[in-house]
TrEMBL record:
Residues in TPM domain copies: 34-156
Record protein name field: TPM domain-containing protein
Pfam families per record: TPM_phosphatase
Keyword Protein biosynthesis: no
Domain of life, per lineage: Bacteria
Signal peptide: 1-18
Biased composition (Gly residues): 349-365
UniProtKB keywords: Signal
Region (Disordered) residue spans: 323-365
Amino acid sequence: MKFVVFFLSCVFATQALAIEVENVPNPRDQNLWVTDFADMIDPVVEQKLNQLIETAHQELTIEIAVVTVDTITASPSPKDFATDLFNHWGIGHAKANNGLLILMVKDARRLEMETGYGMEAVLPDGWLKRMQEAEMIPRFKAGNFGEGLFVGTEKSIQRVRDNNAGVTTQEYQSSYSGSYGGSQGSDSEVPWWLAVFGLGGAGLAGAGSAWKYRKDRTCVECKKKMQMLSEVEDDQHLDRGQYMEEQLGSADWQYWYCTDCDTSKLLRVNKWFSGYSKCRKCSYATMKVTQVTEVYPTYTSTGRARITEDCRHCNHHSVTYRTLPVKTPPSSSSSSSSSSGSSSSSGGSSFGGGSSGGGGAGSSW
């Protein structure tokens, strides 16, 4: 009997700590971004985390919420809870859907990172999962929860910044297309054909790719398989632009030759994530494009960004400016929705009305 009483008391105590989505304090009511309801983050780290997210919000217009809770109600999983909380608060701007929720459930030892629709391409599920396992989970296991959250948030912001998310469009993604590959520099996690055709198409594309690989490396004269020079040996067959592409990691040039009939060919293998794009002057994938926001847009005025192009091969340099659109104000419906889950305070703000369809990734520690 005593055991039953003890067991029931533990159950009731756990239920008392459990929180529902509507009762999680909204950090924007205090003009903050972090709700440490489970008291897992050192106050100094929490302050730095709020500053980090605020800076990213001003620079990139993205919205990031970091939340810790002791436990959640029994019905939803941590993933369901994250999706519901994301949509309840409306994290991210309504049109851009550029929100990110980082949720920690203490008793479940579970981390969930939920992305808005507009962030799924910039922060793909696979990348989030790998980043969590490499940067966040080891720190959580060591008890450094605040540090893990800070590093994970910082890595996510840096990836968004590198992709110019929130303020640019695809015009600043690499558009290089070589003779022996598709678009180089794309930031998708998989080649375009896999995204379009799915697993079945991937099998067909893989078969076609294997056929092309054999064809490109077969001598056109005697039909025998050619040999490839080593990375050091093939450098003497490259021009300056091709050599620079290899040094920058934007391409791998391979020199193939036939031992029987002296036939040779130079093949270009694209590197997908080098960060360099095709230079408009020399046409080599040796140009770095950077964007710096000089004037941040507000809800009433546009901003301005400086776009710099620098080519490592031909030394092409150009600076242009781009007008950043006025920020989208929160909709009235999203404002009322975000304030319904917690009491409002004077001088508070709200999230922008974004939504999530369940994108993101989670890990346990």
